[in-house]
Each structure stands twice: as C-alpha cells, then as structure tokens.
C-alpha cells in the first residue's frame, strides 16, 4: 500500500457518524490535492477490506456520485440513518455536515503513518 493510499484510508476511517467529506478534500488532506479520482479508486477497491465508511464520502457539490440507483439509495439511507439531511435538490449542506478533521490529529496521525512506512523500509533494507 502506498503512503498516499494509507493516508486516504486513515482519513476515511476517521470520518465520524453524521458527517461527510468530499473526494477532493480527502485527496488534499492526504497530500495530493488533484487526486480526487484516485480517492474514488481507493474507496472502491478497499472499502470492504478496510471496513471503511464509504457512504460518508460525497462529491464536491455534496452529492452522491454513485450512478447505480441501488447503491445510491443505500448510501442515502445510510447517511439519513446517521442524521445527515438532504436538501430539496438532493445535495447535502457541506457547511453543516462536512467533517473538518482536527489539524493536530491529522498531523499526528499522518506522521505516524510515515513513521510506519520508514520502519517498513528499514526492515526491507535489513533483509537484503
């Protein structure tokens, strides 16, 4: 798993119930502001394995981005059950429901991921 992927997984895992984050917001916090599509791929491929709260991630307009009707409805129901409200146009008020991680938590947590990566690199070097 790349450092960016680990950071994305950690950020998504930390989205609290009743809050959402956008793909672009997650990408930026993980260190690559233009990688929103990569966040989509990570979420799609790792949600089940990492038990991520996939339903708490929406697009920049506060909309569910899943084209499949059944999955879209599932995401909407999950969010509603957590207290997230949808506006008349089907979007979520990001001012009200967007999660803004605590900067201290973010710095500490992402630094610990980097430390783990460095430890893994050292272990690999010792094996050679």
Structure description:
It is a single chain. With 128 residues, this protein is mainly α. It is built from 6 helices and 2 strands; from the N terminus they run αβααβααα. It has a two-stranded parallel sheet. α1 crosses α3 (36-50), α1 packs antiparallel against α6 (103-127) and α2 (23-29) crosses α3 (36-50). It starts with a helix and ends with a helix. The mean pLDDT is 89.
Task: Give the helix/strand layout.
Layout (H helix, E strand, L loop, with lengths): L2 H11 L7 E2 H7 L6 H15 L6 E2 L10 H13 L12 H4 L5 H25 L1
Parallel strand pairs: 1-2
Concise synopsis of the structure shown:
By secondary structure, this protein is mainly alpha-helical. The chain is built from 6 helices and 2 strands.
Descriptive key words:
128 residues; mainly alpha; two-stranded parallel ribbon; 3% strand
Helix and strand sequence: HEHHEHHH
The strand order across the widest sheet is 1-2
- Give the overall pLDDT as a whole number: 89
Helical residue percent band = 55-70%
* Rg (C-alpha, Å): 16 Å
Name the beta content range: under 5%
> What overall form do the CA principal axes indicate?
globular
Question: Total strand count, please?
Answer: 2
The number of helical runs is 6
Task: Provide the structure class.
Answer: mainly alpha
Uncertain segments: none
Main β sheet profile: 2 strands, parallel
Q: Termini separation (Å)?
A: 20 Å
